[in-house]
Each structure stands twice: as structure tokens, then as C-alpha cells.
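Next comes the chain:
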Amino acid sequence: MRKKFFKKLAGLSLASMLSAGALVGCGSSESAEAPTQDTSATASTENAANDSGELETITVAASATPHSEILEAAKDALKEQGYDLQVTVFDDYVQPNEVVESGDFDANYFQHIPYLNSFNEEHGTHLVDAGDIHYEPFGIYPGTKSSLDEIADGDVIAIPNDTTNEARALLLLQDNGLLTLKDGVGLEATVNDIIENPHNIDFEELEAAQVARVANEVAFVVLNGNYALEAGYSVAKDSIAYESTDSVAAETYVNIIAVLEGHENDAKIQALVSVLKSDEIKKFIEDNYDGAVVFYDK
């Protein structure tokens, strides 16, 4: 996965003011001597978003596809709840975390938890997972052969060569009965961890973006969702097999809403996550990404 991070400087939010106003209003209504205008002023404040049209802003740093597109689909539902969702697209994977850490943005949406943890460790940042939204599944795609039943002795399968993606590819091949890995290697698996290879498969290990380019030279290729789309594959129609929602990889590499620690329970963040986890967004993802992006419904 290719992602990066940001921060947000949070002042007193409208939600905080509304909460404070509500407390004052309760105190005023319980006091016989409290001026009646205090209660009406509080009621006016509580309805500010509806009466004045003012919305509380939620700022999110995001990658272009699919993250910013999914966020755009959530705008109307958030507006109905009194929030103006403002999305800024970044084309790198460092700034989105930096702007959230600094407080310049409320949240970001572009990364999975292993990347988040690694970034925090390397940069001394304090970002946390506020909600799990989607994952981008690895799939096995046809090369010169169209079915795994056609696998023959000595066939070649092309896989990514970086640590994370190679492990995901090997686990997917194991799940489909083509090989067996050492116990416990999990998402650190490499070809050196293969203990059973009944078809004597050869593995062509390539940079992830290059794997699809050798499809006409090898029996099968194993790709993640975005590279499959770039290569013109329909994940739903063309993949022979792909990671399930209950796979180790899907649960590990789910893409998240990340926020500065201590803000994960803020009302605006809870509203954002709730909308992104809604049936409406699930349908949007299912209708628009052809299986390359999968709604995470856990």
C-alpha cells in the first residue's frame, strides 16, 4: 500500500460550543430567576446549523482514488447532520499524516494500519485509527492460463517483490491450494518460506507496478486492486480468486480514517466514520469499483 500522513490544529469547534450552550440552557431553565432570554438564546445556538446555514467544518486529507471519491459521496449525508466535509487531495504519503499531526486537518484517509504504525514510529507522530472503511484486495489474474485447474509442473507465476505485497500474494496462492508456507510467517512471508510446492511453480518477482506487464508471458499474475484496474482488469469479472473480507490480509490492510490521538471520539469524527460505514457508501463502493475496492463491514 502506498500512503502518507497529515495533521490539524483544532480550535473550539461548533459542536463544543453547542454542547456548552446546551449546558447553560439546562441551568437557565431550571432556575426560576434566570432571564428568559438565556433559554431562547441557547435554543437559537443549538439550531444554528439549520437556521443560519452555518455548518461545522470537517477537513480531511486524502489520496485521489478511491479515497477522495468515497469522501465526496459522503458529503450530502454529512451536510444533513450539520457538517461541511472539505476534502484535499495529496499525491504523496507523508504530508497527509503531517497535517493531521499538526492539527491543520481533522483526519486523513489513505492508509492502512501497518503504514500508520510505521509512520508513527519513524516520525514520532501520534496518529490513531478512528474507523476501518475499505480494503483493496489482491487477486490472481489470468496470464497464459485462465483457470487454476490448468496449473502444470514448472509454470511461472508473477508476484510483487516488496515484502508486504509478496506476502499477500503468497498467502492468496496458499489459500487457493497452490503452495504451503511455514507456520507463522504470515505477512512477512517470502518465497523462501514455501515448504510445499507440488507443481514446482517458479515465481517471477517484480516491482508491483510491473507485474501486470508480463501477463502474456506467465501462467498467472497476482495483483493488488489499483494495479489491476490500471492494467484494464475487472476485479469482479476477471480475477480467478481474491482476498476475502475475513482474510488476514484484508483485516490487516483495511484502509482507515486516521486522526490525532485523543480526537477519535470527537463528534465530527464519529459522524464522518458513521457515514462512511453506512449502507449508502457501501452501495457507492460496490457500484463504482468493480471489486477493486471492497467495503469493510466489520
Observations:
- The chain is about 40% helix and 20% strand.
- The chain has a mean pLDDT of 84.
